[in-house]
Amino acid sequence: MKLNDIKLTNPYLKLDAEFHDRVKPDPLDKAHLIHVNRTVANTLGIDDDELKSEDFVRLLNGEFEAEGSDPFAMCYAGHQFGHFVPRLGDGRAINIGTIDKFQLQLKGAGITEYSRMGDGRAVLRSSIREYLMSEAMTNLRIPTTLCLGIIGSEHPVRRESIEKGAIVCRVSTTWVRFGTFEYYAANGMFKELKELADYVIDESFPHINGRPDPYKLLFNEVMVITSRLMAQWMSVGFNHGVMNTDNMSIGGLTLDYGPFSFLDDYKAGHVSNHTDVEGRYSFENQPAISRWNLEQLMKALSPLTPIEGMEKLLSMYDKVYVRYTHYYMCKKLGLEGTVEGDPELIDDMYDMLEKLQVDYTLFLRTLSHYKHKGDRTDLLATGLYHEPMNEWLNAYDERIKYIDPTERRNQMLNVNPKYVLKNYMLQEGIDAAENGDFSVVDDLFKLAKQPFEEHPEFERWAKATPKEFKNQKLSCSS
Ligand code: AMP
Ligand code: MG
Predict the structure, then answer these.
(1) CA distance 383 to 377
(2) What mean pLDDT comes out for the span 228-232?
(3) Is 246 labeled as catalytic in the residue annotation?
(4) How far is CA 176 from the centre of its chain?
(5) What's the confidence (pLDDT) of residue 107?
(6) Contact predicate 417/451, CB 8 Å
(7) CA 212 from chain center: how many Å?
(8) How would you label 269-279 residue by residue, b for 16+ Cβ within 10 Å and e otherwise?
(9) How far is the CA of 246 from the centre of ligand 2 (A)?
(10) How far apart are the first and last CA of the chain?
(11) d(C-alpha 80, C-alpha 88), whole Å
(12) Of 46, 115, 203, 344, whose CB is crowded by the most CB atoms within 10 A?
């Protein structure tokens, strides 16, 4: 499809006027393309040669008005660090329309009715992080919003210093958040609340349509996909950093990339966001915080369906989460079926990794190559001391002795990435980009696309994180 042939629809605009602010993007000065995601472009049906055109940059800069264009920002509320904020909304993201089921949104495209004190902009560094990380997550098979492309500019943006503005064109099948429901519930707008619930069922859970008590079923769906998402984050060592209810996707997607990180050394209490002094959103708290967030969603849905039914569902959250975690971790350890002692084997591994300050990704990748009672040199080299790793490996040897070694290895290499985008790697890409060199962003994109491949040219990024960069915290200002 040529850009001129794009026909946008805007299903969200069919909702009551309370749901959105119609607002035109405010383009950046001297915009230029940094990277385009061809897979996403193909999914949208945009022709390859269109991606090199000036009009494509104009599309990402909010200047190209495709047929049906009617841009808007979405209204929502949210619990931020446990405190309810009655009105948030897209303060710097402008929705430009939907192609098939895919809703395009420009993040950093100027102020909206919901910008509060903000400038409606996004800086280059945070945009690069979101652009690369959403691609990395999807290729790790973790549900996430995606990005079509990223543009840079000469547009000055004031943060701690003056930086350059950028825009990522984000793509998702839903942009509704837990906080969207909270907005209408808190304002006693139950007609709009129902309208939203019906819209979300149509958009993300059409199989519920027409079933009895659809709003209870909606809650059940969100509970299950959120617990699965947590199990996936935890199994890959991802810390989101700001799990406010306005950053929780109703579609169970990883949403709003800010001060996130992948674990370097395994550390359950790792906190990515340096303003999170109490560690509310630490790595290990993520599953429990999701349950707390689901509780807020449950309260918001309670005008539509009796709360008792949802409470019963929420009481199953821990069990569902443990089930999913067990499933993903057994795959990562190459364990077939489930035998008694597996949960302990997995827990003991975490204890051992934490004690020995072992790089989480490197350990599991190295373990994938380990043969039953084989050479332990590479594995032992990932830790500070040989005990208790030897002890744990003895237990592991016992567990895998009847498992086909080739099958185990192949399965493990397919679920334990060789590369994850750690913060120090992203920072290398950002440092180069801020000097006008986008080649490192290109390299990191290749790794994001194929995290399970060997990529011998990037071997240094598969090693443990250099000491000086381990477990660093990031600022929220983006
Ligand atoms: P975040 O922490 O990025 O998820 O943002 C929380 C809220 O602040 C959302 O409502 C954002 O739209 C808004 N926000 C963040 N940064 C800006 C900005 N630079 N300008 C306007 N609104 C912003
Ligand atoms: Mg947000």
Answers:
(1) 11
(2) 98
(3) yes
(4) 15
(5) 98
(6) yes
(7) 32
(8) ebbbbeebeee
(9) 6
(10) 34
(11) 10
(12) 46
Per-residue exposure over 200-213, b if at least 16 CB sit within 10 Å of its own CB, e if not: bbebbbeebeeeee
Q: Are 284 and 239 in contact (CB under 8 A)?
A: no
Place of tokens 């009895």: 212
| pLDDT for 476 beyond 80 | no
Total-model pTM: 0.98
Beta bridge partners of 123: 165
Rounded CA-CA distance 416/163 in Å is 36
The yes-or-no verdict on residue 294 having pLDDT over 90 is: yes
Q: Is the pLDDT of residue 325 over 90?
A: yes
Place of tokens 């090199």: 52
User: Measuring CA to CA, which residue among 260, 93, 259 is closest to residue 172?
Assistant: 93
Q: DSSP readout, 303-334?
A: TTS-HHHHHHHHTTHHHHHHHHHHHHHHHHHT
Q: Which of 246, 265, 276, 443 is labelled catalytic?
A: 246
The DSSP element (H or E) to which 128 belongs, if any, is helix 124-139
Residue-wise pLDDT tens digits, 296-320: 999 999 999 999 999 999 999 999 9
The best mutation among 72, 76, 87, 92 to test binding of ligand 1, ranked by most ligand atoms within 8 Å of the C-beta, falls on: 92
Tens-digit pLDDT profile for residues 64-112: 999 999 999 999 999 999 999 999 999 999 999 999 999 999 999 999 9
Structure letter (DSSP) for residue 453: S
Distance of CA 209 to the CA centre of its chain: 28
Token code pair at residue 357: 């300050």
CA atoms within 13 A on the CB side of 427: 13
Q: Phi-psi region for residue 241, left (φ > 0), alpha (ψ -120 to 50) or beta?
A: left
Ligand 1 neighbourhood includes 201 CB (under 6 angstroms)? no
Angle at 82 between CA 221 and CA 273, to 5 degrees: 95
The neighbourhood of ligand 2, an ion, using CB within 5 A, equals 247, 256
Q: Is the Cβ atom of 119 under 6 angstroms away from ligand 1?
A: yes
The two three-digit tokens of residue 121, written as one number: 């902009």
Q: How many CB atoms are located within 10 Å of the residue 302 CB?
A: 18
119 a known binding residue? yes
Residues 320 and 223 sit within 8 Å (Cβ to Cβ): yes
Neighbours of 374 (CB within 10 A): 13
Is residue 21 a known part of a binding site? Answer: no
